[in-house]
């Protein structure tokens, strides 16, 4: 059905200032345009970006715009479609990730890598939308978004388990595919075992890789090996354990956002090996010899493209790759964000929007 062009009131939870404290907030969503879909949100994953943006710690992106409704791991059910939104119908299960618009015409958008749009993307929250309003994220009852930025979720894929794939999942899947980390028999190191790291382990095992987890916390060893199926576990602060891994890895996915040295990890790569940084430490420092001496590379990656996000969702559905989650009501979100800061979640909070935000 087509839109009658009216704005609609939406209920969400927002931060009003850099304290980051979230509380109920009512606002209007834009009318459903001809290329839009309106999605009733059932669940929303909790990403560390929600902490950073609500507390205005990302000034390089233009600063946080309050009131700020976070959330960019959104899943739900289509409740309305625009007249040109032919790809979806009412009742479809869909997901919305970290962006909701782009120029759609630059070289990157033409490759469906809109996240790298030359003219800049419209982020799912705290960004200027096409109508001049500030985007509001998934800690809310519904969202209106251009159909291009929706991913179809198979009906038999549990929606709460799909939510973390929209940011955490694609953030590790995209560089793994780009750097051909899907070659059975190759070796992968995963630095950090949180929301991103645990999915990197799951993808690695699904690709047939030998996976070693690197962590500063011995308490994560049992889960890494016995629950997630990693082949090895190394305490990164133990020099002897690190030396034993020298020149043994084809690839490393670095998900750690805390500051850490890079030279010790570069020494673990084989000749021609690659370390991909997806975490956000305050700086990256390493000796040029760590690169030159073994023809090694260090690179970075953001979330991922629209087409590969759909490919990832379908891959997870086919191989039954499900994130490890803790479902919470929206009323618990402030405590959940504090726990996230302390690393006290295994491994992703998912908000039950449908049953708690009313």
Question: Key features?
Answer:
6-stranded parallel sheet; alpha/beta; 358 residues; 7-stranded mixed sheet; 17 strands; single chain
Summarize the structure in words.
The protein has 358 residues and is of the alpha/beta class. Helices cover 23% and strands 26% of the residues. It has helices at 48-54, 159-162, 168-178, 195-206, 221-227, 239-243, 263-266, 289-292, 306-319, 333-341, 353-356, and strands at 8-15, 22-29, 36-45, 74-81, 93-96, 99-101, 122-123, 142-146, 150-152, 187-191, 210-215, 232-235, 249-254, 269-277, 297-300, 325-328, 348-352. Strand 11, helix 5 and strand 12 (232-235) form a beta-alpha-beta unit. The chain starts with 7 loop residues before the first strand and ends with a helix.
Give a short synopsis of this structure.
By secondary structure, the chain is α/β, with parallel strands linked by helices. It contains eleven helices and 17 strands.
Low-confidence stretches: none
Helix count, DSSP H or I runs of 4 or more residues:
11
**What general outline do the C-alpha atoms trace?**
globular
The main pleated sheet reads as:
7 strands, mixed
Query: Which H/E pattern describes the elements?
Result: EEEHEEEEEEHHEHEHEHEHEHEHEHEH
Element layout with pairings:
Elements: E1 8-15, E2 22-29, E3 36-45, H1 48-54, E4 74-81, E5 93-96, E6 99-101, E7 122-123, E8 142-146, E9 150-152, H2 159-162, H3 168-178, E10 187-191, H4 195-206, E11 210-215, H5 221-227, E12 232-235, H6 239-243, E13 249-254, H7 263-266, E14 269-277, H8 289-292, E15 297-300, H9 306-319, E16 325-328, H10 333-341, E17 348-352, H11 353-356
């Amino acid at each position: 059905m087509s839109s009658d062009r009216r704005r609609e009131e939406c209920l969400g939870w927002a931060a009003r200032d850099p304290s980051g404290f979230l509380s109920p907030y009512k606002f209007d969503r834009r009318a459903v345009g001809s290329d839009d879909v309106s999605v009733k949100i059932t669940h929303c994953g909790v990403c560390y970006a929600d902490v950073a943006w609500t507390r205005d710690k990302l000034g390089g992106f233009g600063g946080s715009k309050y009131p700020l409704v976070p959330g960019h791991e959104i899943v739900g059910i289509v409740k309305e479609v625009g007249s040109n939104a032919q790809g979806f119908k009412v009742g479809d299960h869909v997901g919305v990730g970290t962006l909701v618009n782009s120029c759609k015409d630059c070289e990157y958008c033409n490759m469906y890598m809109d996240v790298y749009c030359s003219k800049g993307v419209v982020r799912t929250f705290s960004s200027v939308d096409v109508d001049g309003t500030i985007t509001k994220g998934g800690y809310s009852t519904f969202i209106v978004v251009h159909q291009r930025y929706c991913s179809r979720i198979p009906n038999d894929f549990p929606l709460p388990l799909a939510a973390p794939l929209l940011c955490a999942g694609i953030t590790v899947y995209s560089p793994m595919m780009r750097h051909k980390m899907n070659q059975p028999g190759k070796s992968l190191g995963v630095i950090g075992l949180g929301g991103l790291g645990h999915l990197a382990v799951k993808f690695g095992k699904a690709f047939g890789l030998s996976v070693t987890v690197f962590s500063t916390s011995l308490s994560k060893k049992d889960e890494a090996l016995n629950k997630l199926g990693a082949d090895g576990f190394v305490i990164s602060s133990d020099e002897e354990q690190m030396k034993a891994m020298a020149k043994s890895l084809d690839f490393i996915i670095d998900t750690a956002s805390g500051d850490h040295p890079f030279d010790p990890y570069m020494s673990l790569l084989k000749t021609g090996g690659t370390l991909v940084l997806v975490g956000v430490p305050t700086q990256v420092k390493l000796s040029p010899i760590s690169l030159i001496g073994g023809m090694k590379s260090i690179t970075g990656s953001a979330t991922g493209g629209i087409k590969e996000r759909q490919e990832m969702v379908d891959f997870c559905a086919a191989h039954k790759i499900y994130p490890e989650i803790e479902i919470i009501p929206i009323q618990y979100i402030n405590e959940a964000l504090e726990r996230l800061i302390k690393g006290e979640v295994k491994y992703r909070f998912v908000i039950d929007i449908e049953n708690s935000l009313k």
